[in-house]
């Protein structure tokens, strides 16, 4: 409940540096589901490929699970942060 667990899992890393896209995606194997506050660190992650190229490699990732309290706090902060996106306006309706 108060400590963090770590596990190492295989993953697929895709890094693209083209005119159409600049992105990096990591897909974890073994159906690992992430929760709020969890951290993922790819071991020996590939560097940015040269312009115009896309790299797909197999690596290992270190997943650090958040403690139960940290996960609950992250979820609460995320839900509260979402309310900042709401735009509510109260204005008088005027007729001409």
What does this structure look like?
It is a single chain. The N and C termini lie far apart (63 Å). The protein is flat, with a radius of gyration of 20 Å. The chain contains one helix and four strands, in the order ββββα. The protein has one helix spanning 68-82; strands at 6-17, 22-28, 39-43, 53-64. A hairpin with a 4-residue loop joins strand 1 (6-17) and strand 2 (22-28). Helices cover 16% and strands 38% of the residues. It is an alpha+beta fold and 96 residues long. The chain has a four-stranded antiparallel beta sheet, with no helix packed on it.
Would you identify the regions where 5 or more consecutive residues have pLDDT less than 50? none
* Helical content (DSSP H or I, runs of 4+): 10-25%
- The N- and C-terminal alpha carbons lie at a distance of 63 Å
The string of secondary-structure elements, in order, is: EEEEH
Q: What's the gyration radius in Å? A: 20 Å
The biggest sheet amounts to: 4 strands, antiparallel
Number of helices: 1
**Sequence of strands across the biggest β-sheet:** 2-1-4-3
Total strands: the figure is 4
Structural class: alpha+beta
Overall morphology: flat
- What amount of the residues lies in strands? 35-45%
Q: Can you give the mean pLDDT? A: 84
Task: Put the structure in a nutshell.
This protein is α+β, with helices and mostly antiparallel strands.
């Amino acid at each position: 409940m108060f400590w963090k667990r770590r596990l190492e899992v295989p993953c697929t890393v895709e890094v693209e540096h083209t005119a159409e896209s600049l992105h990096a995606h990591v897909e974890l194997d073994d159906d690992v589901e992430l929760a709020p506050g969890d951290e993922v660190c790819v071991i020996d992650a590939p560097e940015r490929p040269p312009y115009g190229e896309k790299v797909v490699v197999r690596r290992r990732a270190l997943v650090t699970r958040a403690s139960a309290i940290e996960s609950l706090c992250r979820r609460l902060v995320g839900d509260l942060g979402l309310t900042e996106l709401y735009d509510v306006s109260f204005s008088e309706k005027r007729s001409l």
